Amino acid sequence: MKKILILLFIINQLIFALDISSQKIKNANTLFLKLEEKNIKNPKLTIDSHNIDFFEIPNKKDSYYALVPISYYKEFDKYKIIVSYIKNNKKVFKGINIEVIDGNYKSEIIKVTDNSKVTLNDKNKKRVDKEYKRAMNIYNKTTPKLYIKDDFIYPINSKITSDFGKKRVYNGTLKSYHSGTDFRAKNGTIIKAINNGKIVIAEDRFYAGKSIVIDHGQGIYSGYYHLSKKNFKVGDFVKKGDIIGLSGSTGRITGPHLHFSFRIHGILVDPLQAIELLNNNL
Q1: From CA 225, how far away is CA 212, in angstroms rounded?
Q2: 129 and 80 within one domain
Q3: CATH code of the domain covering residue 256
Q4: Do 164 and 54 belong to one domain?
Q5: What number of other Cβ atoms are within 10 A of residue 152's Cβ?
Q6: Of 76, 101, 126, which residue constitutes the final position of a domain?
Q7: Which residues on neighbouring strands pair with residue 53, listed in sequence order?
Q8: 187-199: per-residue pLDDT in tens?
Q9: Which of 16, 22, 48, 85 is deepest in the core (most CB within 10 A)?
């Protein structure tokens, strides 16, 4: 009987096909997990007591995926991801070890001529706080439907002027890190939707200026900031390549450009790494 139980355990482990994009991950990067198994329910993973759902991979039977965004501020250490699902009324578990490593992001000094954008008065502090809370209420929601149909594109074909993750020193004071990727774009340059989705933010914000945010479904959001013009409103559906607006110099900015951001399950991640990951795996 003992030999039979051991054999069944080995067979179960072989059937439980689980792949991970990498077991060493930089802070502010994203992991892709792929689970292949028949007749299962409620597949999910847990990391640091935080649950993330798996979703069915389009056009692939018995295949599921989950995205694990790693915060910029995540402590550099080893962690365990626990994957679970229900099969034959029993819960099955598997653990995967990962290590979060330093992305070695550089620093840059930024001079903003309008000091009111750096040292905020009470009125602007309240506005920024209100805008942030409203946006996070959106980012922390997960649309079950995946709107994307094929690969992501870049919002603009232009030179990158500031990479994601750089520490931002505004007027001599360390304020934040660069939460997106900046593309060179003079005023009025066409900005395109990187994939299908619904517009969930279309407003003029204190820091980001005229902003468009697209929900691509299943926790994936892209943001386009400092625009001079917005072509869509909240609730509109856009397709990949649609012109969502024109670049500009609105908000806290030193000159015209496009600030492009990416969130997964509410967490800001490196947009270019996330796009490459999704294009290679979905």
Answers
A1: 7
A2: no
A3: 2.70.70.10
A4: no
A5: 23
A6: 101
A7: 44
A8: 999 999 999 999 9
A9: 85
The domain of 49 spans: 2-101
CA distances in angstroms from 159 to 181, 229, 238, 264, listed in the order given: 10, 21, 25, 25
pLDDT (0 to 100) of residue 10:
45
User: How far apart are the C-alpha atoms of 165 and 152, rounded to whole Å?
Assistant: 21
Q: Are 85 and 37 in contact (CB under 8 A)?
A: yes
The pTM assigned to this predicted structure is 0.89
Gap between the Cα atoms of 239 and 110, Å rounded: 35
What integer pLDDT is reported at residue 24 of this predicted model?
97
* 174 contact partners, CB below 8 Å, separation of at least 6: 167, 168
pLDDT digits (tens, 9 = 90+) for 130-164: 999 999 999 999 999 999 989 999 999 999 998 99
Sheet holding 173-177, edge to edge: 107-110, 167-170, 173-177
Residue whose tokens read 């900015």: 253
CATH number of the domain residue 52 falls in:
2.60.40.10
Residues of the chain with pLDDT under 50: 2-14, 173-174
The domain total for the chain is 2
What was the pLDDT predicted at 207? 93
Give the separation between CA 46 and CA 98, rounded to whole angstroms: 13
Q: What is the pLDDT of residue 107?
A: 72
